[in-house]
Amino acid sequence: MKYSKNDIKSPGKSEQKIAKASFPALSNVILQLRKDNVVIEIEENGERIRIPVRALVLLRDILEAMSQGKPVSIVPQATEVTTQGAAEMLGCSRPHVIKLLEEGQIAYTKVGKHRRIQFEDVVSYKQKMKEEQKQHLIDIMHTDEESGLYDS
User: Fold this and answer.
1) Can you say how many angstroms the Cα of residue 59 is from the centroid of all Cα atoms in its chain?
2) Per-residue pLDDT tens for 94-116?
């Protein structure tokens, strides 16, 4: 199943409440497990499914985030994105992303004529930019304080 960025929404109050109630129970179950997989029965239809413990740990993390009202998105590791996808993630234009790629600021590979970028590289670049922006704001505040324009 594929989701667009418009499908990622913050959980509603009822979802938060269910997640809050489920999180501790699932955490306790995970702590007691001795196997690498577990069988779960779905109460609604009585179906039994085998789930890897690592998937249960991921579900626990999802429940924790939902209980705090945070939206959740899952992206498989080593996923490649297009230049358009990277532009959407970074909140800029596709030509700007291409410029960043050609300047070597983000690594990429070419498949035929198309550029492909590792998801992790886009996330790393975005984090780096956020840190630089934060430092610039701090520098501006210090400059304003020194010149008497800003009182704390």
Assistant:
1) 14
2) 999 999 999 999 999 998 999 99
Which pTM does this prediction carry? Answer: 0.51
Calculate the CA 85 to chain-centre distance: 14
Q: What is the mean pLDDT of residues 68-84?
A: 82
80-146 topology per CATH: Multidrug-efflux Transporter Regulator; Chain: A; Domain 2 (1.10.1660)
Sequence-ordered list of residues with C-beta below 8 angstroms from that of 106, at least 6 positions apart, any chain: 86, 97, 100, 117, 121, 122, 125
| CATH architecture type of domain 5-67 | Alpha-Beta Complex (3.90)
Where does residue 53 rank: exposed (0-12), middle (13-18), buried (19+ CB within 10 A)? Answer: middle
Identify which has the larger pLDDT, 8 or 21.
21
- Cβ–Cβ under 8 Å, residues 33 and 97: no
Distance in angstroms (rounded) separating the CA atoms of residues 149 and 142: 10
Residue written as tokens 């009822």?
14
DSSP states of 102-136: HTTSS--EEETTEEEEEHHHHHHHHHHHHHHHHHH
Measure the CA–CA gap between 74 and 47, rounded to whole angstroms.
Answer: 25
